Amino acid sequence: MAEPIFEKHDRAMHGRPVVGYAMVAVAATLFGINGTVSKVVLGSGISSLRLTEVRCAGAVIGLGLLAVAVAPARVRTTRRELPLLVLFGVAGVAFVQLFYFLAIHRLPIGIALLIQYLGPLLIALWARYVDHEAVRRRIWIALVLALAGLAMMIEIWTGVSLDAAGIGAALASAVVFAFYVLFAERAVADRDSITLLAWGFLFATLFWSVVQPWWSFPAARVARTVSLAGHLHELHLPVWALVLWVIVLGTIVPFILVVGALRHISATRAAVTAMLEPVVATLVAWLWLGERLSAVQLTGAAVVLAGIVVAQTAR
User: Fold this and answer.
1) pLDDT of residue 11
2) What is the pTM of this model?
3) CB of 201 within 8 A of CB of 90?
């Protein structure tokens, strides 16, 4: 799941655009692969809540160490800022991951991701009607494309052929993702992305530690060896190795790549390039797990993707 924090204003870049695009593309690819890896972990008996907890804890260690190493002075916070960081960590970081994991556990990964990626459309609508920002009229085109594509993906004329709870979780993830980005842009706009994420993951970890204490963690399940499922069912790996992938290559590395890419390309271009994630996720899920989408669903996915791109460029 992609969760990059994009700066509010696009800035003139003096770096190398090719490098920036490549960094975002690699990050999107890693995020896309992470969807299938996470689904295998969830299939092993680790709950969505526990996987969210572990991912947050691992990410805060990696991003925290990076923040301290790169800019220790920026890690500091104030009493005034602290409640905002707590809200960002719990309502944003913790819940966007939870709803995402709940969604991919019940839906094809590509569809879950595309529904979550409706978040940028909600952001553009919020900017236009709540913040009264200048938003191009193409936002209506984006809205029509997104809704039409979504209807095709869930095949609404059949009475909704997909899991209703999964669709609800994916839509909730889109709403929380929109809040996550809007909150990051406004409440803590003077803090750099790395330290913001480190604080966010810290409070998300503390929240989940209270909800489900670590002493009740199912360590025996993490120590088990499980099949990779689908077309790779004959291969087996320890659950802890898959969880380590989710933390390192599915979270820390792609986050760093996205943040680094913003030195070379604008936030809008990075966001549009990140649309590669659901494409990669769908392809990997098909090659690995054998998840298949009908021709109508694939067409709907393409229409939603087009709507998301239009929404990204409308703001």
Assistant:
1) 46
2) 0.81
3) no
pLDDT for 10: 46
Q: CA end-to-end span of the chain, whole Å? A: 22
3-state class (DSSP) for residue 133: coil
In which residue ranges of the chain is pLDDT below 50?
Answer: 4-13
Secondary structure (DSSP) of 11-67: ----S-HHHHHHHHHHHHHHHHHHHHHHHHHHHTT--HHHHHHHHHHHHHHHHHHHH
pLDDT confidence of residue 299: 87
User: What confidence score (pLDDT) does residue 7 get?
Assistant: 47
Q: Which of 253, 208, 195 is nearest to 65 (CA)?
A: 195
Token pair 């190398």 is found at 16
SS3 at position 136 = coil
Tokens 């703001």 -> residue: 315
Residue 3: what are its φ and ψ, rounded to 5°? -135, 45
